[in-house]
Specification:
Layout: H1 3-16, H2 21-27, H3 33-40, H4 48-58, E1 76-81, H5 88-109, H6 128-141, H7 148-160, E2 163-167, E3 173-180, E4 183-189, H8 194-210, E5 219-221, H9 227-244, H10 247-255, H11 264-278, H12 282-291, H13 297-301, H14 322-333, H15 339-346, H16 350-359
Length: 368
Amino acid sequence: MDQATIRRRLQALRERRNISQTDLSQALGFNDRQTLSDIELGKRQVAPEELLRAARFFEVDADYFTDPLELAGEAHFSWRKATAADGLEAFEQRAGGWIATYRHLRRLKGESVNSLLMQVDLNRRSSFEEAADEGDVVSRSLGLGDVPAASLACALEEKLDTLILHVDTVAGVSGAACQLGPLNTIIINRREPAGRRAFDMGHELFHLLTWRDMPPEHTEEEGKLSKSQKRVEQLADNFSAGLLMPRQRILDLADKAMPSANNTTTMAQWIREAATQLCVSGPAMKWRLVALKLLKKAAAERIPDDLLRTEPTGDVPPRFSRRFVATLGWGIEHGHLSARRAATVVGTNLDDLGALFTEHGLKTPFDL
């Protein structure tokens, strides 16, 4: 592990534990605080015996500072959850292991870990309409086609080098965005309905595109956000709506016998069918129609969301993503990590690790 990573992890742990440079300097046996300051600024290397003293001081394993398959507090996560989620801290640590492993192996392979970010002209003062319009522009820029929800994940991985991970999350969590330096990751609860998965992906993409100017909360729990942060979340939802339901696509659908809003039942059926075509939820389609002034708000409020629910369609997506699993396979084949270590990273055993490669149509890179 390079010295830059060691010093970043050392400084991050010191700051997270609220330890002053003076106190840590004494624990490491330095004569003054300046030596530690030079280490954190990259002007001096950490000697092995100093690293061992740091591990003893912080009561962590020495490889906490050196293991390339761990994040050790380097990343920034923002979790979207409806309720309090037990075990989220431990799950975030597991997720960090996935992302760190991917980053490490991609670097060894000589491939990019620098996600490409598009420019979006949005801030906290932007209107919801402007957020939806930006989503519409991004949809066209990425070439998402007539059904953006169906091609979004592939476009983000292939065109923006953003890692997409479909996983089984802890209860109550629908997804997350993660920034690890220049590497962006979106985590999606693969057990959610297809329409919800796509909407969450668009929502998390918004956070990645606007993180510098509108950094999201670590956890986005409904009812526990400040007024300012709640507005950011509403902007993210409107951006996702525009991304997945572009204006012209909705206008084209509306031109094809959109019924009168006076007949609630007929209108609900039309919304369900339109939502199914675009692989989004019925309620999301309803409010997109309102935003585009194709349906009055009063009429929309007369249509209960229960009438708009569609039957779940499509299979649960395979675990993680093909790109992630293929990267694991490359690492095993080239001796950069053992099959057993790879199984530990993804939280399974060797037999199930073999099944994971099969899920993605990949050859198992080890003998079972």
